[in-house]
Amino acid sequence: MRGVLRAPVAGRTWREFGYVLVGLPLSGVYFSLALAGLSVGAGLLVTFLGVPVLAGVLAMSRGFGHLERARVRVLLGTDVPDPAPIRAAKGGALAAMGALLKSGSAWRHVLYSVIHFPWALFAFCVALTFWAYGWGFLLYPLWFWVFPAFTDQSGLVVFNNDAYSLALDSPLAIFLTSLLGFALTLATPWVVRALTTVDRVLVGGLLGPSRLATRVTELESDRGVVVDTAAADLRRIERDLHDGAQARLVALAMDLGQAKETLAQDPQAAARMVDEAHGEVKIALQELRDLARGIHPAVLTDRGLDAALSAVASRCAAPVRVAVDLPGRPAAAIEGIAYFTVSELLQNVSKHAMARSASVDVWKSGERLLIQVADDGRGGADIRPGSGLAGLAERLDAVDGVLVVDSPADGGTTVTAELPWRT
After folding, report:
1. How far is CA 275 from CA 39, 111, 265, 270, 287, in A?
2. DSSP alpha helices (H): ranges in 139-210?
3. Which three-class secondary structure state does DSSP give residue 328?
4. Whole-number Å distance between alpha carbons of 94 and 61
5. Which of 345, 355, 354 lies closest to 416, judged by CA?
6. Quick check: 224 and 395 in contact, CB under 8 A?
7. CA 346 – CA 243 distance, rounded (Å)
8. b/e per residue 365-389 (b: at least 16 CB within 10 A)
9. Shortest CA distance to 380 belongs to which of 402, 348, 357?
10. Which of 68, 152, 345, 361 has its CA 20 to 30 A from that of 93?
11. How many CA atoms does the CB half-sphere of 352 hold within 13 Å?
């Protein structure tokens, strides 16, 4: 309620109202120049002169787009990225004009210049009407005296004909007028906000990068994440091999060599060395199995997610209930990502949650694979930069996945992951 009462005098409301007011004259300029340029260019297409005229209109409209994106950013607080620059092949002015004429982004800017004017006119009239009547009626008790002082009317006349005249001059009428103005004043910020929401959509859809360009940028970013993740995994595997199994095998080779030299002189000592080496071999084999499981567990390939996740759950510090309800098996890459997602989340449960129990649910919804890992631990988990959850979210995003964390401070964490199915 306090926010509603403050809205008429809030800075955001005034900026949005200023945006609507300034938008009408600017849109009138855009509309006039773009329509005139298109008309002249289309008429001159029978000659070569129409081509540079149309190219000039497109370049001019892109300049209008820069101004509009800056206006939206400053007054509405919405940052619309610039569209991709137009790159012309080598060939001078003709190539530059050809690139402009073939640019879908440039034509969208022209379309914005044409269609935004009628909307700006409508928004201007609606916003100004609400604003003027709201504040005018709200402050009517302060200025109604103007009518009897300087005119022959007793108050603001709202109805008048030859037989009857209604003026707002009684105390009750003045109070009701001010009350109506109060209601209009409270409604005005939300009306203006709705109008500027349409402007945000128009600017984002017509003056920003195309969906294809945005998708290409996302894929390039996701490819970088995948490459970085793969490089990090290779470094981890190299480090584990070097510090674990490799070091143990080197020590084993040295022990066996020493046992070989000792065999003739002291068979019992050599036997003890061989026995110790046998123990080292078992440890090295277990480390190699753990490492192989971390790369891609055999049980996942052979028996699918249900068995693989049950094996992961058995190693968790808290009891875990696993429920997998899938009609089949997704693509191997998606299956692997799902496995490692659950594995990492259960590791977080073991290390940080201090939970008494946890659950893993996996199911298919439409063409998406849904994973939910919940625990009754202390909560407070979030996807902050540099955290394990942030890295996991980046991995899922690289394959069009989503990670949502619900972890209130009073306890309990639920992490939901969504992946494409992809058979």
Report:
1. 94, 83, 17, 9, 19
2. 140-143, 146-150, 171-202
3. coil
4. 19
5. 345
6. no
7. 25
8. eeebbbbbbbbbbbbebebeeeeeb
9. 348
10. 68
11. 16
369 alpha carbon, distance to own chain's centre: 20
Q: Per-domain residue ranges for the chain?
A: 2-207, 214-295, 302-420
Place of tokens 């068979």: 267
| DSSP-based three-state secondary structure for 47 | coil
CB 408 within 8 A of CB 379: yes
Q: What distance separates the 2 farthest-apart alpha carbons in the chain?
A: 135
- CA separation for the pair 421, 409 (Å, rounded): 33
Over the stretch 213-268, which tens digit does the pLDDT of each residue have?
555 555 555 555 555 555 565 666 666 566 666 666 776 777 777 777 777 777 77
In the block, tokens 């100004």 appear at 128
How many other CB atoms sit within 10 Å of the CB of residue 156? Answer: 19
SS3 of 362-393: the string is EEEECCEEEEEEEECCCCCCCCCCCCHHHHHH
d(CA 107, CA 406): 44
Q: Which of 126, 129, 116, 6 is nearest to 71 (CA)?
A: 116
Q: How far apart are CA 308 and CA 10, in angstroms?
A: 56
In CATH terms, the fold of domain 214-295 is 1.20.5
Correct CATH for 302-420 of 3.40.50.150, 3.30.565.10, 3.40.50.2300, 2.40.30.10:
3.30.565.10
How far is it, in rounded angstroms, from Cα 266 to Cα 329? 59
Does residue 110 contact residue 64 with C-beta atoms inside 8 Å?
Answer: no
Please give the structure tokens belonging to residue 413: 């964490």
Backbone phi and psi for residue 164, each to the nearest 5 degrees, phi listed first: -150, 145
Is residue 402 within 8 Å of 418, Cβ to Cβ? yes
List pLDDT tens digits, range 292-329: 555 667 777 788 888 888 888 888 888 999 999 988 88
Angle between helices 11-43 and 104-138 (to 10 degrees): 140
**What is the DSSP secondary structure assignment for residue 155, as one 8-state letter?**
S
Q: Name the nearest CA neighbour of 403 among 373, 377, 358, 375.
A: 373
Alpha helix (H) residue ranges in 241-378: 247-263, 267-295, 298-303, 305-314, 332-348
Structure confidence by residue, pLDDT tens digits, 141-176 = 888 888 877 877 777 777 777 667 677 778 888 888
